[in-house]
C-alpha cells in the first residue's frame, strides 16, 4: 500500500498507530490540506516530468495474460509443426534438456487453424475471431524470449526485467519517469484477476528500490475501488481534524530534521493522494455514464465477457483521466497454464478476453486515444510445440509472442520468428530487456538514462542490456 513502509525502528508500526488512532490514509491527507501547502509539495514525486525526447506514447495499457498463452496456437503459425505432428522433436531442434521428453511428448500441431486477416494478411488463430478483426492494428513480436522456465521468475522478469524479486516494475519506472497527469489518481494502477493472484504475487507490480509512491495501486469495480481508503465509520470530522493536524505537524518536523528527504516527502504526498482519491476513484469505476453501444462492444452484460470487459473499460476510463500505466491481468494463479488440455484451457481464456480486448482497441481508436496510447498483450512466456499429457503443452521461455498496438508502432505486421516448430526464437530475437527498452523509447525515454541511484550504482529497468527494436516503429 502507498506509504506503508516504516521510516524508523519502533515498537509500534506506523500502520498500527494510524489504525489505532482511527484515521485511515485519507485522514492524514486531510490534515495536510487543512494546514495549507505542505513543504512536501515542492518535491511531489508525481508531478508531471519532461521526457528525454518527444514521446510517441503518453500512456500504457498492458493486458497481461497470466500463465503463458500458447504462441503456436494463437499468433505464430507453424506449417512444419503440422507436418511433423505426432512425431518426436527432430534432433536438429533439440538439446539434451529438450530431448529428455521427446519419446513421451511428440509434437502437437496448432489446435485451431490460422487465417490471414485484414488488409495486412497477418495470420491469427481462429481461437481469437474478434482480435483477428483488429489485425491491421497489431505489431506481433514472434521472437520474444526470457530466462526462466518457472512462473514466478518469468512473471518477475516480464514485469521488472529480473527473474529475482525486489526490483521496480515497468509501471513503477514509468510513474517515476513521467509522474501523472492527474494528481487525484495514482500514476500506476493494477486491475488483478478476481479469481486469484499471480504466481509470485504483488512484487510483480512493486516499486522495488524506488519510493513506495511509484508502486502499483490495485483497484476493483464497485463502491470501494481501493480497500481501506475511506476512514473508519464513526470518526467525526472534528475529531479527525484535531488528531490529524497533530500528525501533520509531527510529520513536518520529522521532515525538516531530515533536510526534507525526498523519500519521506514522497510518503507524505502519498497520504495526500489517498485523500484526493476518496472523491475521484469511485467516479472512475462508475460505468453508469457509458453508452449501451460501448458496453456491448466490451462484452459487458454477457456471461463470458462481462468481468474482463469491465476491467478493460475501466482501463480506458483511467487513461482518459490521466493515469499513466494500467495493467489488466487475465488469469488467476493458473490462468493460461495449459498443461493438460490446450483446447479446453484456451477456449475458456480466449472466450473471456477476445471480445473485450478487441473492444478496447476499437474504443481507443474511435476516441482518438490509440494514437498516443500503447497497448501491450502477452504473458510471462509461451508454450512448447511438444505435447504434455497428450493434449497439453509445457512452459516455453525460449520463444513466444507479445503484441503491441497503438502509439508509435507499425500495425499489421509480424516481427522476428521462432524456429520451424516454434521452440526457440530464431530470427530478430527480442529479449525481455529489448521489449522494455522499446516501451520506454515509445514513452520518450532513453532506457540507459532513466536511472535511480541505489546501493552505489545507477540502476535501470534494462540492467546492462537491451536495445530498442526500431524496425517496428512507425
Summarize the structure in words.
This protein is an alpha/beta fold. It has two domains: 79 residues, no CATH class; 339 residues, Alkaline Phosphatase, subunit A, CATH 3.40.720. The strands form five sheets. Strands 1, 4, 5, 6, 7, 8, 11, 12 and 15 form a nine-stranded mixed β-sheet that branches. It has a two-stranded antiparallel ribbon with strand order 2-3. A hairpin with a 2-residue loop joins strand 16 and strand 17. The longest helix has 25 residues. The protein is globular, with a radius of gyration of 23 Å. The N terminus is likely disordered.
Label this structure with key terms:
474 residues; alpha/beta; Alkaline Phosphatase, subunit A; 2 domains; two-stranded antiparallel ribbon; 14 helices; 33% helix
